[in-house]
Amino acid sequence: MELKEIREHISSIDEGMLKLFLERMGLAGEVAKVKAETGKPILDRAREREILKWATEESGGFSLYSHRFFSMLLELSRAYQAKLLAGKSEMAERIRTAVQNAPAVFPKEGVVACQGVEGAYAQIACDRLFPRGSVLFLRSFEAVFDAVESGLCEFGVLPIENSSNGSVRAVYDLMQRKRFYIVKSVKLWVRHALLAKPGLKMSDVKVVYSHEQALGQCGDFLKSLGDSVKVIPCANTAIAAQMAANAKEEGVAAISSPHCAELYGLNVLNDSIQNSENNYTRFICIAKQPVIYPGANKISLMLSCAHRPGALAELMSAFSATGVNISKLESTPIVGHDFEFMFFFDIEASVLEEGVVGMLEELERSCDTFLFLGCYSEL
Predict the structure, then answer these.
(1) Which CATH number does 193-270 carry?
(2) Is 0.85 surpassed by the pTM of this model?
């Protein structure tokens, strides 16, 4: 056959397939109604395995392709059923309330908790988010969560990840244990400098203090100083600047923001020491209650699934079938469970988009652990 004839034949087959697909999706909707009446979950693994086994066995040399074809068909059926049954869970009600009760714009003021002291990058993030806010400095990341949970502060601002040095693991660990909601995030370009008391030369530096994330982001520079320079992690880059300013011994320097030089009376020995100029840190703003402000287009989730082959793939298929892009996926071990993990997802979606709430409800039903951490926008 000529190419034109082949394509005409394919088009005829496609027309028939489309009619059958629409008929099948309509029947999937009827199945959803029955499941809703009987309280059965949308996902029926035994039924899906039966269909995939049949399709594979009947396809000969095309078994690989038919397996993928029917897998996608089943994913789409589940997504459609989830959409039809959406809005009936407690989570869906919380999301509706969070949207309805949100002010028209994100607030410019409020009492905001962050870890560190004046000059910390978290304080810069607070100022970006809340230009008229009142900042309360605390000693630890956990204290920030606790201040928000107790109502001492309306908001908390915490670093979550860096483009050069990865996630802030201490914050992720706390996210597993604390109750909170993300209501906004901000991405800051981070510029590190080496600071020391006036009169100290680069050749005189013996000790460098900074937060472990900043030390990692400046690893190449620190290696260039040689083994004679001692590198000591501390709680915060601004605290490191304070320590250098108050040090009694000679030769103490800090990796901090250039802004801290003026704050603490230090000199800048080197004004750009990070490994990469493309060095950004993302901060999340947390609140005690969920609030979804207009323009929210990012959703963060915390999930755990059954410890068996294919369990994570089933979770991923829910995003794929709904047309949602995953912008971040990170795993962290579950304490007390050998080789079992909690997964953190950032997805590019709004709870107002069609099918998204239904997808979230189906994930909640099918996951061992499911936490909706918030729907928000990023500055």
Answers:
(1) 3.40.190.10
(2) no
